[in-house]
Design goal:
Distance between the termini: 29 Å
Shape: globular
Structural class: mainly alpha
Order of helices and strands: HHHHHHHHHHHHH
Radius of gyration: 21 Å
Number of helices: 13
C-alpha cells in the first residue's frame, strides 16, 4: 500500500515557515521605525504559533506513517524497530544541519560577522546541541536541538504509553501542565524560567508533539478529524481566551508561551487543515497552493538557513542605501526574497548532490 501524500500538510508547513521567515525579517531589520516595530512585535506571535504547528506536524507525520506501515503489514499492535527508526531520522536531520552550519559560517566569514566568543558553545553549536542560550552560530539552530530531542523522545513515549494513543495525549497534557506550572512559580529573571518556557527544552513543545502523534492515528483511521476533536479544540481555545482576558483585566503581562500556546495549537492545526483543503478546490488558487506546498517541502532547510542571511544582508543593505524608510523597507523585502530564493535553491541542490555522493560511496564499500 502506497501512503497517500497529504497536500494540506505540506501547505501547513509552508504557511508556518513563511510566518517564521517574516517574523525574523522584521526582527533583524536594522531601522526600527514604528511600522517595523509593530510588525516585529505582532509577528512574534505568529512566529511562535508557527513553531508550535511544526511540532504538531512532527508528531502527526510520525504516527500517520506508523499507522500506514501497520496496515500494510496487517498488524493490530505497534511493533517498530525503534533503533532503525531513529537511525533513519537522524541520518535525515544531520547532513542538512551540517551543511547549514558550513553555509552559515561562510556567510559570516564573507560579510565579516563571524565572532566566536566561546569555543565550547561553538562546538556545541556545530554538533547541534547548543539550543538557544548557548548558540554561537545561528540563533535558528535551537530548532534543530529541540526537534532532535523530540525524535529521541518518541520511542520513549510509545514505550511508556504502550502504544495506546489516548495515553500519549494524556502524557502530553500532563508534561505541558507541569512545565507551565514550573514557569509560573519561577522568577522571570532566572535562566531556568526561560529555559523551560521557550526554545531550549522540549517541555514547551511536548504537548504539541503528543497531540500530533495522537491525531496522526486518528486521521489515518478516519481520513478526517472527528467532532470530538473540534469540540475539544474549541473548548481549549475558549479557556485560553478567558485566561488571557483575566490577565488583561488584572494587568498581568501576557507571555504567549506561558500556556496560551498549548490552548491555541489544537484549533490552529484543525483550522489550517480545513481551510487549506477548502482552498485547494479553487483552480484560480492552484499556483498559490503549489507555492505553499513547495515551501513546506523544504521548510526544514529554509528554517536552518534564513536567519544568517537576514543578519548579514539587511545590515549591508542598510549601509549601502539611503532611501526613505518605507521605500527602503519595500526594496529590502524584494532583494532579500530574491536572495533567499537563490540561496535556498543552491542549498537544496548541494544537499541533494552530497546525499547522492554519500549513497554512492556507501554502496561501493558494501
Amino acid at each position: 500500500m502506497v501512503r497517500k501524500r497529504l497536500d494540506w500538510i505540506d501547505q501547513t508547513k509552508g504557511i508556518a515557515i513563511l510566518a517564521v521567515i517574516l517574523f525574523h525579517f522584521f526582527q533583524n531589520y536594522p531601522e526600527r521605525f514604528d511600522l517595523v516595530v509593530a510588525l516585529d512585535r505582532n509577528g512574534a506571535r505568529f512566529g511562535y504559533a508557527a513553531v508550535d504547528i511544526f511540532f504538531v506536524m512532527a508528531g502527526f507525520n510520525t504516527s500517520y506513517a506508523l499507522a500506514s506501515a501497520l496496515k500494510t503489514a496487517n498488524l493490530t499492535e505497534i511493533s517498530v524497530d525503534w533503533k532503525l527508526w531513529l537511525k533513519k531520522r537522524i541520518s535525515r536531520l544531520y547532513p542538512t544541519y551540517f551543511l547549514a552550519v558550513a553555509s552559515s559560517l561562510m556567510l559570516y566569514q564573507w560579510f565579516g560577522h563571524l565572532k566566536i566568543n566561546s569555543i565550547q558553545n561553538f562546538v556545541l553549536s556545530c554538533i547541534g546541541l547548543a539550543g538557544y542560550e548557548f548558540q554561537s552560530i545561528n540563533p535558528g539552530f535551537w530548532f534543530f536541538t529541540v526537534i532532535l530531542e523530540a525524535y529521541l523522545s518518541i520511542p520513549l513515549i510509545f514505550y511508556f504509553c504502550r502504544g495506546q494513543t489516548v495515553k500519549i495525549l494524556e502524557l502530553g497534557i500532563l508534561v505541558a501542565a507541569l512545565t507551565k506550572a514550573l514557569c509560573w512559580v519561577l522568577p522571570q529573571s532566572s535562566s531556568s524560567f526561560w529555559f523551560l518556557l521557550q526554545n531550549n527544552f522540549l517541555g514547551s513543545y511536548f504537548f504539541q508533539l503528543c497531540l500530533g502523534l495522537y491525531w496522526g492515528f486518528v486521521y489515518f483511521d478516519k481520513q478526517s478529524f472527528r467532532r470530538i476533536d473540534w469540540l475539544a479544540a474549541i473548548g481549549t481555545l475558549a479557556l485560553g481566551v478567558v485566561i488571557c482576558a483575566g490577565m488583561v483585566l488584572s494587568k498581568v503581562s501576557i507571555i504567549y508561551m506561558f500556556g496560551f500556546d498549548v490552548l491555541l495549537s489544537p484549533i490552529l492545526f484543525l483550522g489550517l487543515c480545513v481551510l487549506l483543503q477548502f482552498l485547494s478546490q479553487w483552480r484560480s488558487l492552484q499556483w498559490g497552493m503549489s507555492f505553499l506546498s513547495l515551501l513546506g517541502l523544504y521548510s526544514y532547510q529554509l528554517y536552518l538557513i534564513h536567519q544568517p542571511l537576514f543578519v548579514v544582508v539587511l545590515r549591508r543593505l542598510n549601509q549601502l542605501l539611503d532611501l526613505p524608510p518605507y521605500l527602503q523597507l519595500g526594496f529590502s523585502v524584494l532583494v532579500v526574497s530574491l536572495l533567499l530564493t537563490i540561496y535556498g535553491f543552491l542549498f537544496v541542490k548541494t544537499e541533494v548532490f552530497i546525499r547522492k555522493q554519500t549513497r554512492k560511496l556507501v554502496s561501493s564499500q558494501a
